[in-house]
């Protein structure tokens, strides 16, 4: 058995948790004992973090036809941490066209992660004076 | 005051309530004021879009308290912009810079006169029955903290770099050192790394970080970026562009310790050394400013020392979480609407306000004073502490009497604390309440 400190990042409270892990390299989620979490989400996070860490990715993509040239986006759900860099590279190839609404899907099932790339800001189309 | 109008001869708009600043504070105040019965609300915003600083905070972590879900900054702002659009009677003027706020004498229907300018209407004024100040804050710059060294290009405030990357799509540099471990600096460390730049270090003068622990974990530790506590920059080298940064450890008096220098080869320095409430307008209007917060003194309803002028959000005190900005601003909006409906009948026979004082380890409280007669059930108080405490007690006292005692597992200067004081408490302490915090082992071991 080994003990390991871990800060819960699920909410701003940032509980300092203590994990008890079984010996061996690949513990099963249910083998991980968690204390110091103020709510059950801390335990869920700790087990996920120790077995297959995930993050929501937020970034921007190119935008045309609006007053601004960048559109903020996010993954619709948390993705494996080791895929973040590949996803960032994918975003370099994406261009959105205004009008865009919060929640519009720009890429479905990005790189097979099961997460979509969605817009996080409304962008009106610019009336081009012609 | 009529003469002022005649001499300026400015086109005049009328509004029940005028709100200065269209960030989350201004939007929440406008919505709640309208819901509480204000006939019309006019929001003046200098940027091209409302939403405030949230528009550039594209990361997630907003709304967990208020919406019970994790949103990005633009999504959080989007929810409020949507609600504002659905609410008749609220108008937002963007691209509109407010240049002056004046509080007019009691007895006049117009209590506040605001002057602004925008490209379509030019210079104009707004006469209103009440005003809400919601101008947010600005970043401290290199000048404000005095870093020695040459003045090459490549030194930015973290928020300015955030705007470049997230709104304009431009990278400020390739190899960066971040000074200050406030949340914006931490968020930018991750953002730069994801965009392919290298962040060599985050340096913090204090022995603790002023950022949220979750940001240290997910922005620095996730990417192996070292955090050097009790360190500062002692020299920035480079002729045209930053070429090197020299850092050193500091002693307990924050003086660099010779022999501890580290040199970083980098082209960019980001400063995340704190925020200051933006109060030029409030000061010029004559609102009393609290030197501890650098924001206006407010009462339980967020009214400033000027009758009919309310303030909320980062202009009052710097918040880490937008959720609390929203809640506080809703209170300001509702109070402004009540003020408008009631007319200027405050004062009179009402007992004077009860002051709130800083006790041990507490650096400020908001509000700074409370009118017990105007509380419904309780008063929400925000405060900050000056040191990290693992296991702490919060004490509310009047003279030697302890009126309230609360425990907290953890207190830190970077995390704003919230305390609910029942209205009855104020009746027992007309001379004032003192709020203190102490490490739990130091306090008496009560139940
Ligand atoms: C970089 C950064 C990261 C953050 N990260 C988080 C986070 O992860 N989670 C979280 O919950 N909170 C976070 N916060 C905190 C939260 O975003 C702020 O507390 C909140 O935005 C403050 O709202 P506000 O309306 O008071 O100020 P602002 O959002 O700054 O809005 C003020 C508005 O007033 C306008 N204005 C100012 N002066 C004038 C004038 N003279 N005339 C007209 N308009 C004017 C400005 O243009 C601006 O739009 C972060 C803050 C920053 C700066
Ligand atoms: S354990 Fe619960 S309360 Fe604690 S930080 Fe995690 S989500 Fe927040």
Query: What is the overall silhouette of chain B?
Result: globular
Number of helices of chain B: 10
CATH class category label of the largest domain in chain B? Alpha Beta
CATH architecture of the largest domain in chain B: 3-Layer(bba) Sandwich
- Give the amount of beta strand of chain B, in percent: 25-35%
Distance between the amino and carboxyl termini of chain B: 59 Å
Helix-strand category of chain A: alpha+beta
Class by helix and strand content of chain B?
alpha/beta
Mind telling me the CATH superfamily name of the largest domain in chain A? Answer: CPE0013-like
Kindly report the name of the CATH homologous superfamily of the largest domain in chain B.
Answer: FAD/NAD(P)-binding domain
**CATH architecture descriptor name of the largest domain in chain A:** Roll
Number of domains of chain B: 3
Strand content of chain A: 25-35%
**Averaged pLDDT of chain A, please?**
92
Query: What is the total domain count of chain A?
Result: 2
Biggest sheet statistics of chain A: 5 strands, mixed
């Amino acid at each position: 058995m080994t003990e390991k400190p871990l800060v819960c990042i699920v909410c701003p409270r940032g509980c300092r948790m203590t994990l008890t892990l079984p010996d061996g390299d690949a513990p099963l989620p249910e083998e991980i004992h968690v204390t110091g979490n103020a709510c059950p989400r801390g335990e869920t996070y700790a087990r996920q973090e120790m077995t297959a860490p995930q993050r929501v990715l937020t970034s921007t993509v190119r935008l045309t036809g609006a007053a601004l040239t960048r559109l903020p986006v996010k993954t619709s759900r948390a993705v494996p941490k080791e895929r973040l860099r590949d996803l960032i590279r994918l975003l370099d190839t994406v261009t959105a066209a205004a009008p865009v609404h919060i929640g519009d899907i720009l890429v479905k099932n990005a790189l097979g992660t099961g997460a979509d790339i969605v817009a996080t800001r409304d962008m009106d189309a610019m009336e081009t004076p012609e | 005051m009529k003469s002022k109008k005649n001499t300026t001869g400015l086109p005049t708009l009328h509004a029940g309530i005028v709100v200065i600043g269209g960030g989350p504070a201004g939007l929440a105040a406008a919505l709640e004021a309208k819901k509480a019965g204000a006939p019309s609300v006019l929001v003046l915003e200098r940027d091209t879009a409302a939403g405030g600083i949230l528009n550039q905070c594209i990361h997630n972590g907003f709304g967990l308290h208020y919406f019970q879900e994790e949103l990005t900054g633009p999504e959080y702002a989007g929810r409020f912009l949507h609600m504002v659009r659905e609410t008749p009677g609220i108008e937002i003027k963007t691209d509109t810079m407010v240049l002056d706020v004046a509080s007019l004498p009691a007895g006049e229907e117009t209590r506040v006169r605001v002057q602004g300018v925008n490209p379509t209407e030019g210079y104009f004024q707004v006469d209103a029955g009440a005003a809400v100040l919601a101008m947010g804050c600005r970043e401290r710059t290199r000048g404000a903290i005095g870093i020695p060294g040459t003045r090459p290009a490549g030194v930015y405030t973290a928020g300015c770099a955030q705007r470049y990357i997230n709104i304009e799509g431009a990278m400020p540099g390739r190899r960066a050192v971040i000074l200050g471990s406030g949340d914006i600096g931490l968020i930018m460390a991750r953002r730069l790394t994801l965009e392919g730049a290298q962040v060599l270090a985050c340096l913090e003068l204090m022995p603790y970080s002023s950022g949220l622990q979750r940001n240290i974990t997910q922005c620095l530790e996730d990417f192996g970026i070292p955090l050097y506590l009790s360190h500062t920059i002692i020299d920035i080298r480079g002729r045209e562009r930053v070429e090197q940064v020299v850092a050193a450890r500091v002693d307990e008096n924050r003086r660099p310790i010779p022999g501890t220098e580290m040199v970083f080869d980098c082209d960019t320095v980001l400063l995340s050394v704190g925020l200051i409430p933006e109060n030029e307008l409030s000061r010029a209007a004559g609102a009393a400013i609290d030197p501890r917060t650098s924001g206006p003194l407010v009462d339980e309803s967020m009214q400033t020392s000027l009758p009919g002028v309310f303030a909320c959000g980062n202009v009052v005190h710097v918040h880490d979480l937008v959720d609390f900005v929203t809640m506080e601003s809703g209170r300001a909006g509702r109070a402004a609407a009540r003020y408008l409906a009631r007319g200027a009948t405050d004062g009179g026979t009402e007992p004077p306000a009860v002051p709130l004082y800083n006790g041990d380890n507490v650096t400020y409280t908001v509000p700074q004073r409370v009118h017990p007669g105007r509380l419904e059930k309780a008063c929400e108080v925000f405060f900050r502490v000056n040191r990290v405490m693992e296991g702490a007690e919060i004490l509310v006292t009047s003279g030697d009497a302890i009126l309230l005692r609360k425990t907290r597992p953890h207190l830190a200067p970077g995390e704003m604390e919230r305390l609910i004081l029942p209205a009855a408490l104020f009746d027992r302490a007309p001379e004032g309440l003192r709020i203190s915090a102490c490490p739990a082992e130091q306090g008496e071991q009560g139940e």
